[in-house]
Amino acid sequence: MSGPKAASLPSDPGNVSSACDAVVVREFVAVLRNSQKPDQHFQALASLRRVLSSQSKPPIQDAIDAGALPLLIGFLQSPPTVSVGTVAEYQLEAAWTLTNVVSGTSVQTAAMVELGGVEALLSVLDSPVALAHCELCEQCLWALGNIAGDCVGLRDHLLRRNAIGRLGGLYQQLPGVSWSALERAQVLRTLIWLMGNLCRSQPAPALAEVDCCFDFFVQVLMGTDDALMLSEALWGLSYLLEGASEDEGSTRAARFLAAGFGPGETPMPPAPHPVVERVVCCMKRPELKENQMPVPALRLLGALVSASSPELTDLVIAAGVLRALRDAVRCVEASTQVRCDAVWTLSNIAAGSPAQAQRLLIEPGVWAAVCDSLESGATHEIRRECAWTIVNVAKGGAVALTKLDCKALLRLLKVALQETKRQQRGAAAEEEKQALLLRALLDVAESCLRCGQEQAEKQGVSVNPFVRHAEECGLLDQLEELQHSESEAVYRKAVYLLESWFQADLENEPPGACPIQSKLAKGFANNGCNRSGIGPLVGRA
Q: Is there a smaller number of Cβ atoms within 10 Å at the N or the C end of the chain?
């Protein structure tokens, strides 16, 4: 039986339909497998790369089924000597084609990895040829970034191959390359993006595997003004912090703050931390659509203030975050995500210590921005986070309420209850979150009414002014509707407030004088309702 025949090179794909059927792909792969002419290899490789670069359903699976992957990996590792193009150009075509393959499905990406594609790409980056050819270097990084970002299993495969250490070696050599500034910047952007993908996804990689990434991303953050590099570094740091388990959250945060400092040199409040100040600075100009920094900067700051350590929140506040968050909330030209994340961060600051919550009242314009956004926010998500912020500020009880206009607060509670109730239908998990917010808002309402009663008693008058105001602003109407809520905790609290404060014959009596139905009293005991005020609230991740 004779061996396979060498296939002739098919027509260039520039003249082929963009739909490129499997027959055309098989012809290119046949040339790669059977031709004895390296120059034909090069031309077939370039043609296959162009076919797989199609934006509309590229025939990746057809190439895999035709046996392209082992050939491509082999050419990447051991390119032949060719007269058309250099060895580096040959490797570039192979790396580019593999990049197109790993932009497909997870199964297609895994097929390439199983054949040794990761080691082939890393070996090219380890070689002098990558440092001599920036386009080849970037293409290998791009392929690895697609692999790392595909799924946790492939990310971990890269980590097991010591990808971070080998990429660190490449990074250390970049200052000495002979590339142009533009070429060096493009490679660095892709490298930082790849490093971020090696730190993302859940479950997070072990801290020991990614520890040096803190220093890498902080060095980028403090050493460049390139917006794309800064954005990728911010994402990388946010992945490192968000990936922390509950037990190691403080450890990762401390590692972030210590990056770039020697032992004992990390700034502590009230001294500002330069890296945190830099992150806050990256939040500026959120109205610019091309500005990609505010979203990851907010994610990073949110991870810090939602941690269990109050010192972290103090450090973020000392960096001037409240002014930046105020401006982001007020910026109607900013994206919904930016404004929502900004209010979410404020709500987590307010969920800290009473002193931290009161900073939202002290910092000019912050409280007004939250209240205005509750009433006129662009989306339900923004208004919901504003409601949580108001709840968390008011949870300080009498101390916090003395700094607030309780009549204005009752009107805001009416708006928040109305908005939350309107959005209550949905998935079970979402309904549970909405019910939790409704109950928290009702707790705040009770605290306001009690504050009014205490004021009336001190003044020696019988009328609680806040009760009447609650009726006038529409809060009473919301309570009457909520007594029919499907959430037991919500309807029991609504009924309790109605019977405690709004009975016509007991309008101005203190709550202790109001008879509660025995089954409701039993329900309160079982449900854990706190009649004396707002229970403790925590930051919401």
A: N
